[in-house]
Design brief:
Distance between the termini: 12 Å
Number of helices: 6
Oligomer: single chain
Radius of gyration: 15 Å
Largest sheet: none
Helix content: over 70%
Number of strands: 0
Strand content: under 5%
Order of helices and strands: HHHHHH
């Protein structure tokens, strides 16, 4: 049990540091709210080297702690919706065995954005944000590709955790 808790703490800490680093990265021309998704590297690693349940625990802890540390109730709602939808889809696709880490990560990136857009529409009470969908899909594919490529290398090079 102690090793498992230590593993969770390490991965959540890493995800928090990546979240903080990501907040410092500014790409000119990106629409508001678009990020690279560095924290998803940790979730992809946990999904492939631990279990879906472990990945969910790490993801939920990261969302809660980052929101408490750097955000507010709205950032918590947006992050939770994106993380939950992303993880659910990634878990389902991984279980089929038909998708590579890259494909799973791309779907996760797109679904993360869809979850956040859904919350934004609910909070603002308008479907007018739909114009943002093509941009979010493109951003999700790009971020998912980068994270999936890096995640594939990391998962291949780090031995399975006991």
């Amino acid at each position: 049990m102690g090793k498992r808790i230590a593993r969770y703490a390490l991965l959540v800490s890493l995800a928090m540091v990546l979240s903080w680093l990501e907040s410092l990265i500014v790409f000119p021309g990106l629409l508001p709210g678009m990020k690279v998704g560095l924290t998803n590297l940790v979730v992809v690693f946990a999904l492939y080297r631990m279990s879906p349940r472990d990945a969910a625990a790490v993801s939920l802890a990261r969302v809660a702690l980052v929101s408490l540390t750097f955000g507010n109730a709205y950032s918590f709602a947006y992050s939770l919706a994106g993380a939950a939808l992303s993880l659910a889809v990634m878990t389902g696709l991984k279980r089929t065995g038909r998708f590579s880490i890259l494909g799973v990560s791309i779907a996760g990136g797109v679904c993360h954005n869809l979850g956040q857009l859904g919350v934004a529409m609910a909070v603002l009470g308008t479907a007018r944000l739909g114009w943002y969908l093509p941009w979010l899909m493109a951003g999700g594919v790009a971020a998912g590709t980068a994270v999936g490529a890096a995640g594939g290398v990391i998962v291949d090079r780090v031995r399975p955790l006991p």
